[in-house]
Each structure stands twice: as C-alpha cells, then as structure tokens.
Automatic annotation (TrEMBL):
Keywords: Iron. This is FeoA family protein. The keyword Phosphoprotein does not apply. Residues 10-80 form the Ferrous iron transporter FeoA-like domain. It comes from Nostoc punctiforme (strain ATCC 29133 / PCC 73102). The lineage of its organism: Bacteria, Bacillati, Cyanobacteriota, Cyanophyceae, Nostocales. InterPro entries: Fe-transptr_FeoA-like, FeoA_core_dom, Transcriptional_repressor_C. One of its GO terms (molecular function) is transition metal ion binding.
Length: 86
C-alpha cells in the first residue's frame, strides 16, 4: 500500500546553476554556521538563486552574490520555484 508523503525541501546543493529556491529551513548542529547564514540574510522565505556550484558555490540573494562553503550550502533547504522575472 502506498503511503502519501510530502517534500518540504531539498538541500541547496542539489539545485542546478540558475535555479531558484525559497528557503524552507536551515539545519545544522553548528550554531556558528546557522548564525552566519542569518547574518547574510538566509532566513525563512528568502529567495536564493544558485549562480555557480563549481569550483565553489556562489549564491545570489536579491542583488548580492555570495560565496559559501559546502557545509553552509548543505545546511540550507529550499523549495525549488520557477524562474522569476527580475
């Protein structure tokens, strides 16, 4: 028998270059990482665009591009959205 389920989000590292997502939650045992994410504006409902994933992760929040380390990227969970017109 099939049990219904829902997906709340995926890790930001799974997005393809150019895809956008809305932050659904941040998950990390490291409070320093969580505080850094909050300080750069990564909060519930923030729209993030993945600009580059190799050789380093570069995200864009509003008009600001930021480079993040892998542990920070893995802590961010998003719901993928269709491209928005800016």
């Amino acid at each position: 028998m099939f049990t219904p389920f829902s997906i709340t989000g995926c890790s930001l590292e799974l997005l393809r270059t150019g895809e956008q997502g809305i932050v659904t939650f941040c998950k990390s045992q490291d409070k320093i990482i969580l505080n850094q994410l909050i300080s750069i504006g990564v909060t519930l409902g923030t729209i993030i665009t993945l600009e580059q994933n190799f050789p380093s992760f570069i995200i864009k929040i509003e008009n600001i591009s930021l480079a993040l380390d892998t542990k920070s990227i893995q802590a961010i969970y998003v719901r993928i959205i269709d491209n928005l017109t800016n």
